[in-house]
Specification:
Largest interface: A-D, 31 and 34 residues
Number of strands of chain A: 7
Number of domains of chain A: 1
Structural class of chain A: alpha+beta
Number of helices of chain A: 7
Oligomer: homotetramer
CATH superfamily of chain A: Class II aldolase/adducin N-terminal domain
Distance between the termini of chain A: 28 Å
CATH architecture of chain A: 3-Layer(aba) Sandwich
Family (chains A, B, C, D): Belongs to the aldolase class II family. AraD/FucA subfamily.
Largest sheet of chain A: 7 strands, antiparallel
Helix content of chain A: 40-55%
InterPro entries (chains A, B, C, D): Aldolase_class_II_sugar_metab, Aldolase_II/adducin_N, Aldolase_II/adducin_N_sf
Order of helices and strands of chain A: HEEEEHEHHHEEHH
Protein name (chains A, B, C, D): L-ribulose-5-phosphate 4-epimerase
GO molecular function, one term (chains A, B, C, D): aldehyde-lyase activity
Radius of gyration of chain A: 17 Å
CATH topology of chain A: L-fuculose-1-phosphate Aldolase
Pfam families (chains A, B, C, D): Aldolase_II
Chain lengths: 230, 230, 230, 230
């Protein structure tokens, strides 16, 4: 788990370098699917003095199995996402400001252009609001449940992010680092989408053909972007 | 008072590092409740050459009891807040641009999401406009009076900030450092709220249940965020 | 004139540090009233390799009396302002983006708050559009004429800036450094005013009493801001 | 070609320094008209470790004639622009956020002020949408075709940029460095134009006289801006 702790630490620090968080907001986790163990940021520890050994290891019931500190208060959302989305290896939650604005507005982010289509194969969904009961009794896990519900049968790897209504974005990926990369692009996409609606309130978004072209240029067996790995 | 002067200096410099002020705008103070003495930034001195010994110590009538320089021209607002809100230990005033925009618009900032709810238990109020008489005769103190009025019987620690109509934000906290932390989050919240209304002009804000859940997660006896102190 | 060249160089560099210009856009000048000589930035020279000796000295007819380089293409506007406004000692022109937006919108910036009132005693005016004849025959000087016209009998030191319609801001002050300081605050005021109208399309601005209180707190015989000079 | 590879590398890095790209987005190319060879950024290589030898040289059919890496996936658009616009020596594509917003909104950027007029002699056009057939069969080249179509008989050196609908900006110039300079100004112009419409939804833009005055001040035989070359 030492290597995963290093990766998760690095991914947490990358979130800061990319300007997605303020103070101790935000958290990144990673999972070892072999061990069914999750590594997550500790709660409320300043990023500038966080070390790999401060990260917390828990099982899939949220029990701490390694580490001195209390895990992020969002742990149960992360765990639910790992259970609901078996393909993912990393989860990130931020309060990045433009994605939060869409979440607060309760609007999904439509695919308005090719930057979006390069990463998200369709709108980034926004969850339903949680009920008062869910909020009182099982808030953090219910957040994960609402995200999974928003996907239904859609493949969560095709749109690796969601907006929690009135709260903010979660993003994910094959690794913690991937998850952060998606969160960074999500924020850029959210910003450009807001600007676009300011210029064109009836913006309709890209055609299915363009969405397909760009998404599958970067994803799937026929991807052509980047250098082929040798 | 030397330690408080150092704290207040540091809090003033933090306001600069966080990008909340331009030139010599803004000011932070702290109070020693034991001594009934206030430490405040001097008026119009550039932050980059401000030293702890440049800070001014006054009593609660605004009389300088230590220091060579003239205190911030906003001193009487700070003093009134210390009198009206006995729990607070630090006050900060900035012209941070998004909070100013809400103040200039004369609109309170509603609790549109959980970032807000983590820090402010309800809308951040905007004061009434001052009368011409108040402005002419007792402007600076009247600003503090209007802030206190905007709270009525509400607990000023539950919403540790206010917008002075046509002017800008004041924030406070248990310490000068806390006050600045709240001012930084206020600016982020103001920015995200403006973006949200641009996307959704009828945004309604979070439910009481969500407001409770987030606020009391970080505040009060049952708080669960961060590491328990040992 | 060596000292003035140093001051004008420094003021030009400050414009860059404050983020008001891109590439070689923008220019600052200063005047020696004793000699009736103007020092101005050369045209199209990158700021990062500009030296005091690159600055150009001209008389009030725009004739170069010292220096190897061609003066800023906006020279005649500067000269007209020095003639029309005898109290000023420095002029700056930028394409700072929010002030440009107001200029392009053809709207004066109303006094919406105390940041504005601390520096500008009333709206920042926008010029009329120039006629096709003026543009063809005497464009640069006519720009200065239109600015002076926009002031009529108002004191240009009370509102030390104007927006040239479809173009951008000019600001001025007692010294080149003062002029730049006013240009920096103008940009902040322009930004906050745009945000304010986004939140409140019918924003009315500050009362006369508040405008008086703030403006005369920093200006005139009864000013109380800052440290008294000894 | 070594010198051109160095120039194209430098132009790619300038795009990063100017904040126009995220991750490996964006690409700059240059052409040697003598050799009919194009130098372009490799696909998906991080800017921070790109070296001149990583750049790819292709002929005008897109065949790699030098280099180990796969060329930018946008290569065929660049090549089409070099064929359609014989005067140009460099092309740049970015996802700079304000230009993208206009592209996503499907709106050309009108000439609202003199910053625009200094660089673009009229509106920056937006292409028609590509057909589903074009997108499926010959997407990258068709993007170049649509850009050339948007110019018709207009001189592409007079408006050295276009917005691809639902995608983002392409810019060009006499050299790769020029192309990037134009892309940087385009982004500033796009940003100021968005602000302007927020303040004035019916903004009409500059007169023909002002457009002429500013454009020809910087371009053509009678240009007066900058230092004459000796």
């Amino acid at each position: 788990m030492k290597q995963l702790r290093e990766q998760v630490l690095e991914a947490n620090l990358e979130v800061v370098r990319r300007g997605l968080v303020l103070y101790t907001f935000g958290n990144v986790s990673g999972i070892s699917r072999d061990d069914n163990l999750v590594v997550i940021k500790p709660s409320g520890v300043p990023y500038e003095r966080m070390k790999a050994d401060d990260l917390v290891v828990t099982d899939l019931e949220g029990k701490v199995v390694w580490g001195e500190l209390r895990p992020s208060s969002d742990l149960d959302t992360h765990i639910h996402l790992y259970k609901a989305f078996p393909e993912i290896g990393g989860v990130v939650h931020t309060h990045s400001e433009y994605a939060v604005a869409w979440a607060q507005a309760g609007r999904p982010i439509p695919a308005l252009g090719t930057t979006h289509a390069d990463y998200f194969y369709g709108p980034v969904p926004v969850t339903r609001e949680l009920t008062a009961d869910e909020i009182k009794n099982d808030y953090v896990r219910a957040t994960g449940v609402a995200i999974a519900e928003a996907f239904g049968n859609r493949d969560p790897m095709e749109v690796p992010a969601a907006l929690v209504a009135g709260h903010g974005p979660f993003a994910w990926g094959r690794t913690p680092d991937d998850a952060v990369h998606n969160a960074v692009v999500l924020e850029a996409v959210a910003r450009m989408a807001m600007y676009t609606f300011s210029l064109q309130p009836n913006a309709q978004g890209v055609s299915q053909a363009l969405l397909d072209r760009h998404y599958f240029r970067k994803h799937g067996a026929a991807a052509t972007y980047g250098q082929s790995e040798k």
